[in-house]
Amino acid sequence: MLAAASGSIQRHGPDHAIYCALGKSQEGYDIYCPRPVLNGGWPAPFLFDRTGISVENDLNVPEDDLRAWPLVANCAFYFLLIAVGWRLILAITGNDRVSSPLTGVAIMLIAQETDHGQAD
């Protein structure tokens, strides 16, 4: 979720694309004007503006270039960030019983099941 939201962080470059043709040189070669492409995602950009196909300088998932590996790297980055943050919170509070938020929920559910089983 955080990785997808990071797509709203947009900047130009380092990838370049051809936005226009200036004409031909005296030798007959085409002359193009490459410019930096708009991309989105932080820390690794994973969504790139596709020139000539999509609206220029507007990132949308169906029409622009979504690169899977940088998106996976962003997901891993945010997962590690949350895991380290959770460990810091546990270290500061001195609570070593619950190792993750999901473990805490599982412990509460098991406790409720055993309470219901004893009440019957």
Write a short abstract of this structure.
Helices cover 41% and strands 25% of the residues. It is an alpha+beta fold and 120 residues long. Strands 1-2-3-4 form a four-stranded antiparallel β-sheet, with no helix packed on it.
Extract low-pLDDT stretches.
Answer: none
Average pLDDT confidence is 79
Biggest sheet: strands side by side, in what order? 1-2-3-4
Quote the beta fraction: 25-35%
Cα distance spanning the termini: 42 Å
| Strand segment tally | 4
Q: How much is the radius of gyration in Å?
A: 25 Å
Helix content: 40-55%
- Element-level helix/strand string: HEEEEHH
Structural shape: elongated
Which keywords apply here?
4-stranded antiparallel sheet; 4 strands; alpha+beta; 120 residues
Give a structural overview:
This protein is α+β, with helices and mostly antiparallel strands and 120 residues long. Helix content is 41%, strand content 25%. The protein has helices at residues 2-5, 68-93, 101-119; strands spanning 10-24, 30-40, 47-48, 65-66. The chain has a four-stranded antiparallel β-sheet with strand order 1-2-3-4, with no helix packed on it. A hairpin with a 6-residue loop joins strand 2 and strand 3 (47-48).
